[in-house]
Amino acid sequence: MIGDNPAYKRVMLKLSGEILMGKETFGIDQGVVETVAAEVRDVVALGIQLGIVIGGGNIFRGMAASARGMDRTSADYMGMLATVINSLALQSALERAGVPTRVQTAIEMREVAEPFIQRRAIRHLEKGRVVIFAAGTGNPYFTTDTAAALRAVEIRADVLLKATKVDGVYDRDPVCFPDAVMYDKINYTDVLTKNLKVMDAAAISLCRDNGLPLIVFNLQKAGNIKRVICGGNVGTKVGGEKP
Fold it and tell me: What CA–CA distance (Å, rounded) separates 57 from 194?
Protein backbone atom coordinates (compact mmCIF):
# COMPACT_ATOMS: atom_id res chain seq x y z
CA MET A 1 0.00 0.00 0.00
CA ILE A 2 1.42 3.37 -1.01
CA GLY A 3 0.73 6.33 1.25
CA ASP A 4 -0.33 9.71 -0.10
CA ASN A 5 1.89 11.92 2.06
CA PRO A 6 4.71 13.29 -0.12
CA ALA A 7 8.13 13.63 1.46
CA TYR A 8 9.11 16.26 -1.12
CA LYS A 9 7.43 19.24 -2.75
CA ARG A 10 9.55 19.91 -5.84
CA VAL A 11 11.17 16.96 -7.58
CA MET A 12 13.46 16.42 -10.57
CA LEU A 13 13.03 13.05 -12.29
CA LYS A 14 15.78 11.74 -14.58
CA LEU A 15 14.69 9.12 -17.11
CA SER A 16 17.03 7.25 -19.42
CA GLY A 17 16.13 7.16 -23.07
CA GLU A 18 16.70 3.39 -23.05
CA ILE A 19 13.74 2.94 -20.70
CA LEU A 20 11.42 4.33 -23.38
CA MET A 21 12.44 1.51 -25.75
CA GLY A 22 10.66 -1.09 -23.65
CA LYS A 23 11.42 -4.45 -25.28
CA GLU A 24 12.28 -2.84 -28.60
CA THR A 25 15.86 -2.43 -29.79
CA PHE A 26 15.46 1.14 -31.00
CA GLY A 27 13.08 4.07 -30.77
CA ILE A 28 10.03 4.62 -28.60
CA ASP A 29 7.61 2.02 -27.23
CA GLN A 30 4.39 3.98 -26.95
CA GLY A 31 3.07 1.63 -24.29
CA VAL A 32 6.02 2.41 -22.04
CA VAL A 33 5.55 6.14 -22.60
CA GLU A 34 1.88 5.86 -21.65
CA THR A 35 2.79 3.91 -18.50
CA VAL A 36 5.32 6.54 -17.44
CA ALA A 37 2.74 9.28 -18.13
CA ALA A 38 0.18 7.52 -15.93
CA GLU A 39 2.67 7.28 -13.04
CA VAL A 40 3.57 10.95 -13.45
CA ARG A 41 -0.12 11.86 -13.42
CA ASP A 42 -0.52 10.03 -10.10
CA VAL A 43 2.29 11.97 -8.41
CA VAL A 44 1.21 15.32 -9.86
CA ALA A 45 -2.22 14.65 -8.34
CA LEU A 46 -0.52 14.72 -4.92
CA GLY A 47 0.50 18.34 -5.52
CA ILE A 48 4.08 17.54 -6.48
CA GLN A 49 5.92 20.09 -8.63
CA LEU A 50 7.73 17.89 -11.13
CA GLY A 51 10.55 18.52 -13.58
CA ILE A 52 11.79 15.79 -15.92
CA VAL A 53 14.99 15.24 -17.90
CA ILE A 54 15.08 12.42 -20.47
CA GLY A 55 18.13 10.95 -22.16
CA GLY A 56 18.29 10.15 -25.86
CA GLY A 57 20.07 6.80 -25.91
CA ASN A 58 17.10 4.97 -27.44
CA ILE A 59 17.59 7.06 -30.59
CA PHE A 60 21.20 8.26 -30.68
CA ARG A 61 24.17 8.13 -28.33
CA GLY A 62 26.76 10.82 -28.95
CA MET A 63 29.61 9.08 -27.14
CA ALA A 64 29.04 5.83 -29.06
CA ALA A 65 29.03 7.66 -32.38
CA SER A 66 32.19 9.54 -31.38
CA ALA A 67 33.89 6.22 -30.59
CA ARG A 68 33.13 5.12 -34.16
CA GLY A 69 34.89 8.17 -35.60
CA MET A 70 32.23 10.91 -35.70
CA ASP A 71 33.25 14.35 -34.47
CA ARG A 72 32.35 14.39 -30.75
CA THR A 73 30.78 17.84 -30.81
CA SER A 74 28.52 16.99 -33.75
CA ALA A 75 27.62 13.64 -32.20
CA ASP A 76 26.69 15.25 -28.89
CA TYR A 77 24.44 17.80 -30.59
CA MET A 78 22.71 14.96 -32.41
CA GLY A 79 22.18 13.29 -29.05
CA MET A 80 20.64 16.49 -27.70
CA LEU A 81 18.15 16.49 -30.57
CA ALA A 82 17.24 12.90 -29.69
CA THR A 83 16.30 14.06 -26.19
CA VAL A 84 13.94 16.62 -27.73
CA ILE A 85 12.15 13.85 -29.65
CA ASN A 86 11.71 11.86 -26.42
CA SER A 87 10.55 14.94 -24.54
CA LEU A 88 7.89 15.75 -27.12
CA ALA A 89 6.69 12.13 -27.06
CA LEU A 90 6.32 12.24 -23.27
CA GLN A 91 4.66 15.66 -23.39
CA SER A 92 2.07 14.31 -25.82
CA ALA A 93 1.33 11.33 -23.56
CA LEU A 94 1.08 13.54 -20.47
CA GLU A 95 -1.27 15.98 -22.16
CA ARG A 96 -3.51 13.07 -23.22
CA ALA A 97 -3.49 11.94 -19.59
CA GLY A 98 -4.71 15.39 -18.55
CA VAL A 99 -1.41 16.68 -17.18
CA PRO A 100 -0.47 20.21 -18.34
CA THR A 101 3.11 20.04 -19.59
CA ARG A 102 5.75 22.35 -21.01
CA VAL A 103 8.96 21.42 -22.81
CA GLN A 104 11.92 23.76 -22.43
CA THR A 105 15.04 23.25 -24.52
CA ALA A 106 18.64 24.30 -23.98
CA ILE A 107 18.94 24.74 -27.76
CA GLU A 108 16.48 27.29 -29.10
CA MET A 109 13.74 25.80 -31.33
CA ARG A 110 10.73 27.98 -30.66
CA GLU A 111 8.47 26.16 -33.12
CA VAL A 112 8.39 23.05 -30.92
CA ALA A 113 9.32 24.17 -27.39
CA GLU A 114 10.14 27.09 -25.13
CA PRO A 115 13.76 28.10 -24.56
CA PHE A 116 14.99 27.29 -21.08
CA ILE A 117 14.40 30.24 -18.76
CA GLN A 118 14.84 29.50 -15.08
CA ARG A 119 12.20 31.87 -13.75
CA ARG A 120 9.65 30.74 -16.33
CA ALA A 121 10.33 27.09 -15.48
CA ILE A 122 9.77 27.74 -11.78
CA ARG A 123 6.57 29.63 -12.56
CA HIS A 124 5.27 26.69 -14.61
CA LEU A 125 6.01 24.37 -11.69
CA GLU A 126 4.22 26.66 -9.25
CA LYS A 127 1.17 26.57 -11.52
CA GLY A 128 1.10 22.77 -11.45
CA ARG A 129 2.60 22.15 -14.87
CA VAL A 130 5.17 19.41 -15.46
CA VAL A 131 8.28 20.86 -17.09
CA ILE A 132 10.39 18.61 -19.33
CA PHE A 133 13.92 19.92 -19.83
CA ALA A 134 15.29 18.84 -23.22
CA ALA A 135 18.57 19.13 -25.15
CA GLY A 136 20.77 18.53 -22.13
CA THR A 137 22.76 21.56 -20.99
CA GLY A 138 23.02 22.78 -24.59
CA ASN A 139 26.75 22.02 -24.57
CA PRO A 140 28.71 19.06 -25.94
CA TYR A 141 30.74 16.86 -23.58
CA PHE A 142 28.04 16.99 -20.88
CA THR A 143 25.64 14.12 -20.27
CA THR A 144 21.92 14.29 -19.54
CA ASP A 145 22.79 13.16 -15.99
CA THR A 146 24.70 16.40 -15.57
CA ALA A 147 21.81 18.28 -17.19
CA ALA A 148 19.40 16.73 -14.68
CA ALA A 149 21.60 17.73 -11.73
CA LEU A 150 22.06 21.24 -13.13
CA ARG A 151 18.36 21.83 -13.79
CA ALA A 152 17.49 20.38 -10.39
CA VAL A 153 19.75 22.90 -8.70
CA GLU A 154 18.43 25.74 -10.88
CA ILE A 155 14.77 25.05 -10.07
CA ARG A 156 15.68 24.47 -6.40
CA ALA A 157 14.37 20.90 -6.35
CA ASP A 158 14.19 19.08 -3.03
CA VAL A 159 15.51 15.84 -4.52
CA LEU A 160 16.82 14.33 -7.76
CA LEU A 161 15.35 10.94 -8.66
CA LYS A 162 17.20 8.74 -11.14
CA ALA A 163 14.94 6.07 -12.65
CA THR A 164 16.85 3.02 -13.88
CA LYS A 165 16.41 -0.64 -14.80
CA VAL A 166 17.94 -1.89 -11.53
CA ASP A 167 16.79 -1.53 -7.93
CA GLY A 168 19.45 0.90 -6.78
CA VAL A 169 23.20 1.44 -6.44
CA TYR A 170 25.32 -1.73 -6.20
CA ASP A 171 28.94 -2.29 -5.26
CA ARG A 172 29.41 -3.69 -8.79
CA ASP A 173 27.33 -4.32 -11.89
CA PRO A 174 24.44 -6.59 -10.82
CA VAL A 175 23.91 -7.70 -14.43
CA CYS A 176 27.41 -9.17 -14.62
CA PHE A 177 27.76 -10.15 -10.95
CA PRO A 178 24.72 -11.88 -9.40
CA ASP A 179 26.28 -11.57 -5.92
CA ALA A 180 26.51 -7.76 -6.17
CA VAL A 181 25.35 -6.00 -3.01
CA MET A 182 22.94 -3.05 -3.12
CA TYR A 183 23.46 -0.04 -0.88
CA ASP A 184 20.52 1.37 1.06
CA LYS A 185 22.44 4.60 1.61
CA ILE A 186 25.77 5.92 0.40
CA ASN A 187 27.39 9.35 0.31
CA TYR A 188 28.56 11.16 -2.80
CA THR A 189 32.24 10.98 -1.93
CA ASP A 190 32.09 7.19 -1.70
CA VAL A 191 30.28 7.03 -5.04
CA LEU A 192 33.16 8.97 -6.61
CA THR A 193 36.03 7.19 -4.87
CA LYS A 194 34.56 3.73 -5.53
CA ASN A 195 33.77 4.70 -9.14
CA LEU A 196 30.26 3.25 -8.86
CA LYS A 197 28.97 4.74 -12.13
CA VAL A 198 25.69 5.95 -10.61
CA MET A 199 25.95 9.11 -12.70
CA ASP A 200 28.94 10.75 -14.30
CA ALA A 201 31.39 12.48 -11.98
CA ALA A 202 30.29 15.99 -13.00
CA ALA A 203 26.67 15.23 -12.03
CA ILE A 204 27.67 13.64 -8.71
CA SER A 205 29.95 16.56 -7.84
CA LEU A 206 27.23 19.07 -8.71
CA CYS A 207 24.78 17.29 -6.40
CA ARG A 208 27.33 17.05 -3.60
CA ASP A 209 28.46 20.66 -3.84
CA ASN A 210 24.86 21.90 -3.68
CA GLY A 211 23.56 19.49 -1.04
CA LEU A 212 21.07 17.93 -3.44
CA PRO A 213 19.88 14.45 -2.37
CA LEU A 214 19.75 11.74 -5.03
CA ILE A 215 17.63 8.57 -5.02
CA VAL A 216 18.33 5.81 -7.54
CA PHE A 217 15.44 3.38 -8.06
CA ASN A 218 13.87 0.89 -10.46
CA LEU A 219 11.28 2.46 -12.77
CA GLN A 220 10.14 -0.92 -14.09
CA LYS A 221 8.29 -1.70 -10.85
CA ALA A 222 4.83 -0.14 -11.12
CA GLY A 223 4.16 2.68 -8.67
CA ASN A 224 7.80 3.22 -7.71
CA ILE A 225 7.84 6.92 -8.60
CA LYS A 226 5.02 7.53 -6.13
CA ARG A 227 6.62 5.26 -3.52
CA VAL A 228 9.89 7.18 -3.66
CA ILE A 229 8.23 10.59 -3.52
CA CYS A 230 6.11 9.49 -0.55
CA GLY A 231 9.20 8.41 1.37
CA GLY A 232 8.94 4.68 0.77
CA ASN A 233 11.88 2.37 1.35
CA VAL A 234 12.76 2.15 -2.33
CA GLY A 235 16.11 2.29 -4.08
CA THR A 236 19.36 3.78 -2.81
CA LYS A 237 19.61 7.20 -1.16
CA VAL A 238 22.77 9.08 -2.07
CA GLY A 239 23.94 12.14 -0.19
CA GLY A 240 24.30 13.24 3.38
CA GLU A 241 27.40 15.40 3.10
CA LYS A 242 27.17 19.06 3.90
CA PRO A 243 27.95 21.29 0.90
Answer: 25
